[in-house]
């Protein structure tokens, strides 16, 4: 017989996941009040999407690395290197813009394979390999750029992070196309959630009551459509948001519906048990870092497009922002726990906090301290949950 969980049971069973969404809503509300509504203005919401898209892309790959029990400290340097290679080809040598994008992706894959080899097959801890990579790839960036910045990129390249799709279906004061895409995405989301609920019922797993299920869909839909409406009143649908949406959908499917995803969780949850179960640990670890390199290449192309050039110091501290997004979003420091959607919410929390404090004119040093405290509290909450779970067994 299928167990139907109430609202209290849902929050109790998955406090960390539920808590991060509640925290996000509270933080948005507080900063909206503190900035007199400027935070949620159409122009500012568009700027948040453009400014933090590359961090969210990195967080997608980073959460998979963390779930497997590893860490990657090199992604900021890889973002700089991939952007530098793209700039040299496109700006310095006149190659087509798409050649630069493909080169950035290829360099990211090669970097990921290099680091994956040392971690998976040589057995060096990822912390050491990627710490070395952080230095190695930053030095390579300086070599590639010859210690100078390159700019500007052609207009087509700049559209990757700065382009918009608008006016396709018209609209008076707002872009209809943006709203239609958001509505279609919500239909897909609702269908996916319904199928997932039916699957849990089939295997007699606990689910929330149907009214609560519908209420959750209505609330999500309201938030998404309100967000889409604000974007439609500004410049329309950002191209980079489409890229990010496709990546979130793809990697959510990979981590929750595929054998590879299940093996990643198995390795992070209990490495010895995964080995005894026949999981090819070395192969999985190798591809985890190849994937991280690929997404760092994507982020490198997006960031260089956003900044309209390549700089030797590009990507500085990006790895820490991506790691913070994952831990704030519910990933465990010991591996085996984490979700792509949680990492996205964690990244948005960091983005909203940074943007809100900037709008309030708060000093940069204070912003850094606040973000550090939030990360510390998120990890402390993770440890508290584990100790409480262990005490109740």
From TrEMBL:
It is a multi-pass membrane protein. It comes from the Bacteria. GO terms for cellular component: plasma membrane. Keywords: Cell inner membrane, Cell membrane, Membrane, Sugar transport, Transmembrane, Transmembrane helix, Transport. The chain crosses the membrane at residues 20-39, 51-68, 73-91, 97-114, 119-137, 174-192, 213-231, 237-254, 284-303. InterPro entries: ABC_transp_permease. Coiled coil: none annotated. One of its GO terms (molecular function) is transmembrane transporter activity. It is found in: Cell membrane. Pfam families: BPD_transp_2. The keyword Cytoplasm does not apply. Its main location: membrane. Part of the binding-protein-dependent transport system for D-xylose. Probably responsible for the translocation of the substrate across the membrane. This is Xylose transport system permease protein XylH.
